[in-house]
User: What shape does this take?
Amino acid sequence: MSKTLFQKIADKEIPSALVYEDDQVVAFKDIDPQAPTHVLIVPRKPIPRIAEARPEDHKVLGHLLLKAAEIARRLGLEKSGYRLVLNNGPHAGEAVPHLHIHLLGGRQMKWPPG
Ligand code: AMP
Assistant: This one.
């Protein structure tokens, strides 16, 4: 199986502005930021999207969420708030078929989202 775009970023075959990494996840700045802070938090395991996560993925999914909150805290977003987004499939506008959490902050968000 060929590597996904985000696996190539995680393996540093494609450059990125890395924000955090450990043995399970990497986080880097989105190349097309939609807010003053826009970071993608990605499991090294290439789960295509949340709909395809399996019960045995629960540890990495929990880790991913906890790291998203930790990175938001480290970037100074805790008090002002931030949004975490997972796009799943065509109606959500999913573009990269490798699970990732968008961390968006630094401006007022609207609801409902577009
Ligand atoms: P999604 O629509 O949820 O699949 O989001 C994919 C995201 O990946 C988009 O926000 C893109 O701007 C972002 N993206 C695509 N290529 C890169 C890249 N090489 N480095 C950083 N972010 C990227």
Remarks:
- Helices lie at 5-10, 58-74.
- The mean pLDDT is 98.
